[in-house]
Amino acid sequence: MFKEQRDQKLDRFCFLAMGICFSARIKADTPPHTGVNSHYVSSDGNDMSLDGSKISSTSVPRTEGEILQSSNLKSFSFSDLKIATRNFRPDSVLGGGGFGSVFKGWIDENSFTAAKPGTGMIIAVKKLHQESYQGHREWLAEVNYLGQFSHPNLVKLIGYCLEDDYRLLVYEFMPRGSLENHLFRRGSYFQPLSWSLRLKVALGAAKGLAFLHSAEAKVIYRDFKTSNILLDANYNAKLSDFGLAKDGPTGDKSHVSTRVMGTYGYAAPEYLATGHLTAKSDVYSYGVVLLEMLSGRRAIDKNRPQGEHKLVEWSRPYLTNKRKVYRIIDNRLEGQYTMDVAQKVAILASRCISLEPKLRPKMEEIVKELEQLQDSSNMDNNHFKTRNGSRTRRRSAGDAGNKIANAAYPRPSASPPHSK
């Protein structure tokens, strides 16, 4: 949801072939197109699917006033959020980015009024810099989409504050922080995610994207990456940061034409080259994240040896080669998976990052395949445990004893809901 402070220092990357220079996060001057397409309205005026997803049936909003009126969110006063976050104290900061900071706070579960620290419900409050116009547009986009969508794999936006020049967003608190931290940070709190948890997170994130791409929502997420995948106490994945989300094409249109926005290393090549945005652009980004989970490597890492800086380019030759696929698998996962399942995950990632968008699978297909792979992996693990008894292996997140309550949580580097 928010860029890491570290990300602000990244070098700018130039695509000379296109005559365009992008920063680590690609920005644009035009505001995102805001609005929601709704179908299949139930008797109570809302869309509801069997998976617990929900979409408001209000008319497609366009102006700021219409968006705020049509949202299903709590309107907070600035004074309430000031009290809830202990006056936005520095030691309450959970993360920060180019146009604001995120603070930990507490509110009453019923009245949503400010509560004493340690009581009531924990929240994450994003406070925008008052002079940030780009931040305001993304703030409005988040209210627009998360104010009307409800799904188990989307982070919950509880409310907002629009008072004078203040712009704030109030989210559910995600105690496990971002997937990025668990994959790439080192320390006593961030144990390497186990193979089974990586499959669980991959599936949850896929379900979130599949919902956005569904006929009910028709939204292109546009900024799918590890720092925007947040984890609750049980490692359930939820997508956050809808500031760059955009309505998908309608009618007989095949794509949406936009200024290029997103994050270098995750954006689909055809989108970078043409500005044509489709759901398959998100699928490419998903494939990059799946590679990161499989390999334990970042999408872009200049600290790697020459030829290994870009994960997609480096891994592509190995993904469909049964004899070489092991070279890209995170060595911290040794003994936790079967090569058969690992190869299928690698092949799935390869399909997602295909240079030809039409060859990439739909997110609903990815969900079905991952569900099958998860079931197969669980069966293999049970067979392995039965045959090998209590054979020990390297400790990973998800092992017994990896408790959250007593773990020291370093200052997080990405978006909201991070534990502290």
TrEMBL record:
<dbReference type="GO" id="GO:0004674">
    <property type="term" value="F:protein serine/threonine kinase activity"/>
</dbReference>
<dbReference type="GO" id="GO:0005886">
    <property type="term" value="C:plasma membrane"/>
</dbReference>
<feature type="domain" description="Protein kinase">
    <location>
        <begin position="88"/>
        <end position="373"/>
    </location>
</feature>
<keyword id="KW-0472">Membrane</keyword>
<keyword id="KW-0418">Kinase</keyword>
<keyword id="KW-0808">Transferase</keyword>
<dbReference type="InterPro" id="IPR008271">
    <property type="entry name" value="Ser/Thr_kinase_AS"/>
</dbReference>
<dbReference type="Pfam" id="PF07714">
    <property type="entry name" value="PK_Tyr_Ser-Thr"/>
</dbReference>
<dbReference type="GO" id="GO:0006952">
    <property type="term" value="P:defense response"/>
</dbReference>
<comment type="similarity">
    <text>Belongs to the protein kinase superfamily.</text>
</comment>
<dbReference type="InterPro" id="IPR001245">
    <property type="entry name" value="Ser-Thr/Tyr_kinase_cat_dom"/>
</dbReference>
<keyword id="KW-0611">Plant defense</keyword>
<feature type="region of interest" description="Disordered">
    <location>
        <begin position="372"/>
        <end position="420"/>
    </location>
</feature>
<keyword id="KW-0067">ATP-binding</keyword>
<protein>
    <recommendedName>
        <fullName>non-specific serine/threonine protein kinase</fullName>
        <ecNumber>2.7.11.1</ecNumber>
    </recommendedName>
</protein>
<dbReference type="InterPro" id="IPR050823">
    <property type="entry name" value="Plant_Ser_Thr_Prot_Kinase"/>
</dbReference>
<dbReference type="InterPro" id="IPR011009">
    <property type="entry name" value="Kinase-like_dom_sf"/>
</dbReference>
<keyword id="KW-1003">Cell membrane</keyword>
<keyword id="KW-0723">Serine/threonine-protein kinase</keyword>
<dbReference type="InterPro" id="IPR000719">
    <property type="entry name" value="Prot_kinase_dom"/>
</dbReference>
<dbReference type="InterPro" id="IPR017441">
    <property type="entry name" value="Protein_kinase_ATP_BS"/>
</dbReference>
<feature type="compositionally biased region" description="Basic residues">
    <location>
        <begin position="384"/>
        <end position="395"/>
    </location>
</feature>
<keyword id="KW-0547">Nucleotide-binding</keyword>
<feature type="binding site">
    <location>
        <position position="127"/>
    </location>
    <ligand>
        <name>ATP</name>
    </ligand>
</feature>
<dbReference type="GO" id="GO:0005524">
    <property type="term" value="F:ATP binding"/>
</dbReference>
